[in-house]
């Protein structure tokens, strides 16, 4: 099996088990109030790539953890990611009608239900992170994971980053400003995903900080790849139109650095991500392969 | 000191220490992005009664706990309450321009910032609930508190209740339906407030379940009192107009039971709340007095 085949099979398998778990952890679609539960399911199962849960599980295994013990945390990360997409798409925010080729949550269910579906997913993430589990993980570790994820999602992380991003429409950021937006908006939760996996497995300080570095570079690479795909990507594969950043005059890595330099920067971040975890053994192979996938992904 | 003077002094003192703690636990108003932080402060310090934190602290003390150990939890409850008000006021939801006599968050800061301010407060609540503390509380208890509060705020509680409430504008609920809305929309978080205080103090099952019953009745009384105030209250004291429920044809306890029967029902819930905790010693005096305050409050 060459690396590409391994990656395909690995991601496909992981998505499947993550989606089965997401299904288990959400209240049924026909729970009352039904509109809200249907909207929550609609958005959670709208074709996400499940990068955050997969990173969390991979980091957990790279530190010798057992898959099942990290599954609630992995799914909580996907709940939080999905909530952020629902709220970002709202008319008052990015006002997007389509996401992955399907109507956005507020287009399908109305704005009030979409706001509540986002609120619900953010809250249910913490229900999941704190619920009692058959596989006992020390409560201290679980608290540390909640701390890590909440901080990454809060004012210092994702929510603050989204507000900066909205502000960037008025006052164009420079390179440092752009990095700050992305560190908070996407990087923080990606980094928290790998750190949470490591913390749950009981990893030591050194491993956790190596993985935090890995997460940082993967996060940067992820965002630059997004910007590059917005120029060069296949609209049909991605389920959204390309060229929108340029049309809206958005500041991106390619617009600041030029397309070629942005691609070089992307490749550097991927190398740095892989270098960060060179002290890990073969169980970190999936993490290494995922880092490459971030660069080569087509959607 | 008669009971009324005691209550006034007690609530005033508790509001003061809660507000000092809220100030400490929030990032400064001039943290970047500034608009978002200003909006968060604006809404948190918009004149709230701090009922949830005060109930949490009182339940904690009634179970022999030390005030300082419950303060982060008390403030997290106020963050969650404030987030719910910000989102409920949004144009897509209740579309309210005023709250406690001041412009609502989206009126003052725009809709995008208001959505993010709500998201931020909900998330920061969990940052606060999970952060390391000088006063060590066993991690198991802290996890149980997070579970209690998250569940009360989530689909089975507050978010679900708000969705039911929005639905009630189209299909009018009966008495049982109205109770279900309020149990989830307001009752769940009020109950979680007292339970959280008890759990943090290390209370046993019996005390926790007595306090859960207390919280349930206080929650019902609180909502009926709200409905009664909407008819008979002093608009100036409350900072909002009265009679709005009737004008909008909203189903309320008075509209279903008649005003007098609603008041009788309110008094019964207050009695039942107080009865629930009759096994507690004098340290539960504030809880008993607060239950009476719920009925007699003017705003």
Tally of domains of chain A: 1
- Helices and strands of chain A, in N-to-C order? HHHHEEHHHHHHHHHHH
CATH superfamily of chain A: Farnesyl Diphosphate Synthase
Into which percent range does the helicity of residues of chain A fall?
over 70%
How would you describe the overall organization of this protein?
- The structure is a homodimer of 299-residue chains.
- Chain A has 299 residues and is mainly alpha-helical.
- Chain A contains 15 helices and 2 strands.
- Chain A has one domain: Orthogonal Bundle (Farnesyl Diphosphate Synthase).
- In chain A, 72% of the residues lie in helices and 1% in strands.
- A two-stranded antiparallel sheet of chain A has the order 1-2.
- In chain A, a hairpin with a 2-residue loop joins strand 1 and strand 2.
- At the A-B interface, helix 2, helix 6, helix 7 and helix 8 of A face helix 2, helix 6, helix 7 and helix 8 of B.
Question: Nutshell version of this structure?
Answer:
2 copies of one chain form a homodimer. With 299 residues, chain A is an all-alpha fold.
SSE diagram, text form:
The structure is a homodimer of 299-residue chains.
Chain A: H1 3-25, H2 34-44, H3 51-62, H4 67-89, E1 98-99, E2 102-103, H5 105-109, H6 111-130, H7 139-153, H8 158-167, H9 175-200, H10 205-232, H11 235-238, H12 244-247, H13 253-257, H14 259-276, H15 285-296
Antiparallel strand pairs in A: 1-2
Helix pairs in contact in A: 1-4, 2-6, 3-4, 3-9, 3-15, 4-6, 4-9, 7-9, 8-9, 9-10, 10-14, 10-15, 14-15
């Amino acid at each position: 099996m060459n690396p590409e085949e391994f990656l395909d099979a690995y991601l496909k398998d992981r998505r499947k088990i993550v989606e089965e778990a997401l299904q288990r952890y959400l209240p049924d679609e026909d729970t009352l109030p039904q509109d809200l539960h249907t909207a929550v399911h609609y958005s959670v199962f709208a074709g996400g790539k499940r990068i955050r849960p997969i990173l969390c599980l991979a980091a957990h295994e790279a530190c010798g953890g057992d898959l099942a013990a990290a599954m609630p945390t992995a799914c909580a990360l996907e709940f939080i990611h999905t909530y952020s997409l629902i709220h970002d798409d709202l008319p008052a925010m990015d006002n997007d009608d389509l996401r992955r080729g399907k109507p956005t949550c507020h287009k399908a269910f109305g704005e009030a239900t979409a706001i509540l579906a986002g609120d619900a997913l953010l809250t249910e993430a913490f229900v999941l992170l704190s619920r009692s589990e058959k596989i006992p993980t020390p409560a201290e570790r679980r608290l540390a994971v909640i701390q890590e994820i909440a901080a990454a999602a809060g004012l210092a992380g994702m929510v603050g980053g989204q507000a900066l991003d909205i502000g960037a429409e008025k006052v164009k950021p420079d390179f440092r400003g752009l990095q700050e937006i992305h560190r908070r908006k996407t990087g923080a939760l990606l980094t928290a995903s790998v750190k949470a996996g490591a913390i749950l497995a009981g990893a030591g300080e050194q491993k956790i900080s190596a993985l935090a570095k890995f997460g940082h570079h993967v996060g940067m690479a992820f965002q630059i790849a997004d910007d590059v795909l917005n120029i060069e990507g296949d609209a049909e594969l991605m389920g959204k139109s390309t060229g929108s950043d340029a049309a809206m005059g958005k500041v991106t890595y390619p617009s600041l650095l030029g397309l070629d330099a942005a691609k070089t920067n992307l490749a550097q971040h991927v190398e740095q991500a892989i270098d960060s975890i060179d002290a890990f053994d073969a169980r970190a192979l999936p993490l290494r392969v995922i880092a490459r996938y971030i660069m080569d992904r087509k959607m």
